[in-house]
Amino acid sequence: MSGPGNLYVISAPSGTGKTTLVKALVDSLQNIMVSISHTTRPKRPAEMHGLNYYFISRDEFDHMVAHDDFLEHATVFGNCYGTSRRWVEETLARGIDVILEIDWQGAQQIHDLIRNSISIFILPPSVKDLHERLVKRNQDNTDIIRQRIADVREATNHVPSYNYVVINDDFSAALNDLQVIVQAGRLLRSRQTEKHAKLIAELSTAKIEEF
């Protein structure tokens, strides 16, 4: 047994490049997966059900909330998002690291539930850069873009509650930062002592006269 996996919570303002970074991170490392959230948000043209999100109705979402099916859930820009409790718990138990791409509301819930989770906040290099990215991705109208920019202030106020902060100015550098954080998490004493319990027990009881 390798012991349970680590839970990484990654948050960022819309347009920061979080999703692209996380995909590159998962593609570059073994034994790590991204949790697919359930959402009531309408599906965008390029998105696929079960790949980007599980797109469900508000009634279905409320039913899952009532049955405690979500590890965390939050409402963002009028749409509901939730993380499957069962999938996360089963995946971690298999020794696989899990990434949750969630906002600060969900991150607070996870921190209260799983105190050894590792949280990362990704920031854009500037407000101007963030606005340009939101315009270029051509997914939202002007009013929504302004709303997302306004939301940055609220989201950024929660940075102090995260373990790590990564600035996505240079993509390669930001990806490397995330890789380092994940690798460091795998070397934490709590995880290593469980993974190598047999070795540690052997070393701690070694008898000099045997050599």
Summarize the structure.
This protein has 211 residues and is an alpha/beta fold. It has helices spanning 18-28, 58-66, 85-93, 104-113, 127-137, 142-156, 171-186, 189-195, 197-204; strands at 7-11, 32-34, 38-39, 54-55, 70-76, 79-84, 97-101, 118-123, 164-167.
Describe the structure using short key phrases.
211 residues; alpha/beta; Rossmann fold; five-stranded parallel β-sheet; 9 helices; 9 strands
Largest sheet: 5 strands, parallel
Q: Order of strands across the widest beta sheet?
A: 2-7-1-8-9
Total beta-strand segments: 9
Tally of helical segments: 9
The SSE string, one letter per element, is: EHEEEHEEHEHEHHEHHH
The share of residues in extended strands comes to 15-25%
Q: Superfamily at the CATH H level of the domain at 7-36 and 96-210?
A: P-loop containing nucleotide triphosphate hydrolases
- From the spread of the alpha carbons, the general shape counts as globular
Q: Which parts are unreliable, with pLDDT below 50 for 5 consecutive residues or more?
A: none
Find the CATH topology of the domain at 7-36 and 96-210.
Rossmann fold
* Class based on secondary structure composition and strand pairing: alpha/beta
Report the CATH architecture of the domain at 7-36 and 96-210.
3-Layer(aba) Sandwich
Helix content: 40-55%
Assembly state (oligomeric): single chain
